[in-house]
Amino acid sequence: NAGVTQTPKFQVLKTGQSMTLQCAQDMNHEYMSWYRQDPGMGLRLIHYSVGAGITDQGEVPNGYNVSRSTTEDFPLRLLSAAPSQTSVYFCASRARQGLWPQHFGDGTRLSIL
Amino acid sequence: SQQGEEDPQALSIQEGENATMNCSYKTSINNLQWYRQNSGRGLVHLILIRSNEREKHSGRLRVTLDTSKKSSSLLITASRAADTASYFCATEGQGAQKLVFGQGTRLTINP
User: pLDDT tens across A36-63, in order?
Assistant: First the structure.
């Protein structure tokens, strides 16, 4: 099993551009989530999904969209990139609500110029 | 807002010594978890302790939980160079079904 796979690993964007961060898991997990990690701030939840077709907002959802058309994939879309979105983004999954642990991908390092 | 506050923010010790990290949180929880993050990598789950547990062990790891003080500690015994990493506590609040992370402790083990 590959676990949680994130692509790309690195990306540089210009302000105003849009892009999609990809996340895929091969563990048949129902629950998937996106976090951003900024220096000195730990991880903050952006969006999460408890199953295909169901998504909800986390702590810092503004500027991001998600969808969950399949169990395996949970892409994160930046609609109009801003320098404040420069961060490291992590995707995570777990079997379902109430079950732990949570498995993380290796992250996407995103810079907005 | 961050739920967990970790202390110290950075810790540097000699190989073979024990390392202790502390985490405090604000609201009632279902469980508290510790994760490790190596440089440039994702987080790896280390151990979970439920709100009705007071202590848990896993190999060289010992976690304690004091719900009356809303605090937890992670002890790594006989540290190794490979333990160099950042360590995060995360809490699942009651009814929340989501994890809230602390800011992390950066641990450096000197050979």
Answer: 999 877 899 999 999 999 999 999 999 9
- What's the whole-number mean pLDDT along residues A4-28? 97
Q: Count Cβ neighbours within 10 Å for each residue of B53-81 and write b for 16 or more, e otherwise.
A: eeebeeeebbbbbeeeebbbbbebeebee
A2 and A104 Cβ atoms separated by less than 8 Å: no
Provide the number of CB pairs (under 8 Å) joining chain A to chain B: 53
Contacts (Cβ under 8 Å, ≥6 apart) of B103: A40, A41, A42, B2, B4, B5, B6, B9, B88
* Contact check, Cβ <8 Å, B88/A42: yes
Which chain A residue shows the shortest CA-CA distance from B99?
Answer: A45
SS3 assignment, position A25: strand
